[in-house]
Predict the 3D structure of the following.
Amino acid sequence: MPSLLHRFRSRHTYHNLVPNRMGLWSLVMTIFFCVSGGPYGLETIVQSGRGMALILIVVVALIWGLPIALLSAELGSAIPEEGGYYEWVKRGVGPRAGFACAWLTYLYSCVDVAIYPVLFVGYLSSIVFSPSNASLDFLVRLAMVAPLAWLNIRGVISTGNTALAFAVALLVPFVVMIGIGFIPALQHIPSISVPLVPAGMTTTGAATTGLFVIMWNYLGWDSISTISREVKDASNIFPKALMIGMPLVVLFYLLPVLVGINAVPDISCWTDGSWPTIAGAIGGPTLRLAVGLGGLLSAAGLFVAGLLAASRIPFVLAADSYLPQSFTTLHPRYGTPVRAIVISAVIYLILSTFTFSELATVDVLLYSSALLLEFWALIQLRRNQPELARPFKISGGTKTVIVMALIVTLLVVTATTQMLIDSWIEIAGLALFAIITGIILMRFKKWRVGA
C-alpha cells in the first residue's frame, strides 16, 4: 500500500488517487447526517416547555447553526483543502492553533460518532428485541460498525450514495407524519405553545436546559470540509450544499416537533427514543414502525458520515508528522486512508460501551472549543489575506463576522458554564486528557522533524 506522506501536498497526485468525487446531492445528505440525521435525539427539547422548544429550534438555528454554516461556506470555498478546518485554522492563525483545532475536533468525533451505535441498539431494542447481555449488545454494535466502515474504505461515492438513500428512507415517514398532522397543529398553535415553560421552571432555566440539547443537534456544519479534495468543484458545491442543508435540517426539526406536541402535549412523554410512539399517536402502528426503522437508518447514517469526516483528520495530521506515517497509508484500489478509517472505527466501537448521556455530556464543549478557533481564523484571514479568492463570502464585512463570532462565543460560554455546574469533574478530566495527548503529539512531531 502506498504512503502519501511525501506526496500528499501534491494536489495533482491526490486527484489521481481519488478519480471519483462526490457530487452535490450526495454532499447535501452527507452534511445532513454530519449535523442531524433527522429529528431523532431532539425529543427531550420539549421538556423545556412546548413553546420554548419551538422558539429554541428557530432561534438557535439563526444564532448558532447559521453562523457555523456561513463560516464553513466561506472558508470551504476559499480553502478547499483535504483536512478542511485544520487547513483553515493553520493558514489563518498558525500551525499550533491548526493542530489544536484538529485534535479537539477529532476528540469530539470520538465522543460524537460513538453515540450512534448506542442509538442504533436503542432503536433496534424498541422495535425488534432487547439484547439480553453485554456480549450480544456488543455484537449488534459490531454488526453495524463493520459494514459502514467498509463503505468508507470504498470511498466517498459509496458513502455519499448510502447517505442519500438513508436520508430519503428515514425522512419519508416524517413527511407522512407532517402531512397528517400539519393542518391540525396550525389550528391549535396558540394552545400547544402555551405555557411557554413547564410549571415551576423559570424562563431562563427552561431556555438553558433546552439550549444544550438544541446546540448538540445543530453541531457539525464544518465537519465534512475534511474531504474537500474528494468533492467535485468543492469551492462552488460546498457552499451550495450547506445552503441547501441548513433549511432542510431546520424544517425537519421544527415541523415534526410542531405536529408531535399537538398530538402528544404531555411533555413527560417526550424522552429519548420516543419518536415512534409520537408517530403512532398521529398515524397509527404502521407509521410508528416506519419511524422506528428510520431511527436505525438515522443512527447508521450519522455513523457513516461521521466516520467519513473524522477519519481524514488522523490522515492529514500524519502527513504533517503529528501521527505515525502509517496513518497516511492508502487502500491500493480505492485510494482512501484505510488505516485511519479502521482505527477510527475501532475507537468508536470501544467508546460505544459508554451510555448516551456519558458520551453526549462533553460533545458541545469539545466541538465549541475548536469552533472558536475557526472563527478566529475567519477573522484573521479577512484581515490578513483580503486578496484570497472567496467564491462564497459572508456579506456585511468583517464587522458582521466579528458580531457572529461574539454571539457564538456567548452561547459557548453559557453552555460551558452550565456543564461545569452539572459535570465539572468530567469536564476537568476531559480538559486534562486533551492537553496531555496534545502535548504528546506535538512532542512526537518535534522528534520526527528533528530525527
Observations:
- Residues 1-17 have pLDDT under 50 and may be disordered.
- Residues 71 and 362 are 23 Å apart (CA to CA).
